[in-house]
Amino acid sequence: MFDPITLAVGAGIAGVGWAVGRFGRRTPAASARARCGCGHDLALHDPQAGECHAETNRKTGYGIREWVRCGCRRYTGPVPIEDFFSRPILPSDD
Question: In degrees rounded to 5, what are phi and psi of residue 67?
Fold first, then answer.
């Protein structure tokens, strides 16, 4: 009914796979979001003007921190695939 050699080989393969996954060298996963050179994603950039609307934390004198607007003026990250293959649904502002 059960072949003991096949069961042993399957258990060995499963054990080796577990050991490699558990103790193997790990690489950090790549970010799934498209990021600009400023570190912010596409959602924080204005679609027409391209400038960034995010705020960053800047240190001033004596350990005081303040929030300032990001200095990025144009999105430089990867272009979304939707811009290549689909036309805009709404009419343009022209």
Answer: -95, 125
- Categorise residue 63: left if φ over 0, alpha if ψ from -120 to 50, beta otherwise: left
The overall pTM is greater than 0.85:
no
User: Residue 91: inside a domain, yes or no?
Assistant: no
The dihedral region occupied by 50, where left means phi > 0, alpha psi between -120 and 50, and beta the remainder, is left
Structural domain includes residue 9: no
For the segment 24-50, what is each residue's pLDDT rounded down to a tens digit? 877 766 656 778 888 888 888 888 888
d(CA 74, CA 28): 28
Q: Does 58 reside within a domain? A: yes
Q: How far apart are CA 35 and CA 76, in angstroms?
A: 8
Count up the domains in the chain and report the number.
Answer: 1
Angle at 87 between CA 40 and CA 35, to 5 degrees: 10
